[in-house]
Amino acid sequence: MSASRPIRLPAKDFNNRSLPVTIIRNFKGLRLHGAARPAIQFRNTPSHRFSHPDASSGLIYLADDLETCLWECFGDAILAPGTAVSCSIWMSRKLSEIHTRTQLRICDLTETNTRSALKVDLSALKHTDLHIPQAWGLAIMNHPDAVDGFQFTSRFTNRRCTVLFENSKIGSILKSKQVGNLIDLDQGAVFLERNEIALV
């Protein structure tokens, strides 16, 4: 039996490598958030995938579609059929669209060529030991090329998500539009039924 493949962390010379940068215009993403919280809020929560405890600023996580938002928010708790989600938590969530017409400089980790250039593979970005993806998040945040964030593939749906870094520009260019309360969205009900999840 062959030895398991080693998990790569950012190389010591990571800051000496140029980050592949994608320019995104008319960006739009979706965010699930608590009703008591603003739609646009940058936070550094160490239990989140790329939020390193040593990060100097907050992050905001966005997805391209509601199903991915739901999996990213509730996925770890509902992987087994027949599991339950707190009804009070479900009812307290709102869905908002976050958008900007100002161009963003993004490191696109959904692209194979980008991952190859940075010597990072999907197993590191999706690893359940959070210190590994968090090390990559911190390295990109602190890179001298100063991108606005990066895109990655959800480990639940394999669809695109975006992390944006809090900086002097981002807060002023992002706008939000409320889509609706999660409890009122048909897609939310379909998600619960399809995955055999009860609200308790």
Question: Could you characterize the architecture of this molecule?
Answer:
With 200 residues, the chain is α+β, with helices and mostly antiparallel strands. 25% of the residues lie in helices and 26% in strands. It has seven helices and ten strands. It has helices at 66-74, 87-91, 112-118, 122-125, 131-142, 170-173, 186-194, and strands at residues 22-24, 27-34, 59-63, 84-85, 93-100, 104-108, 149-153, 160-165, 175-181, 198-199. It has a five-stranded mixed sheet. The protein has a three-stranded antiparallel sheet with strand order 2-5-9. The radius of gyration is 17 Å and the shape is globular. The model has no long low-confidence stretch (mean pLDDT 92).
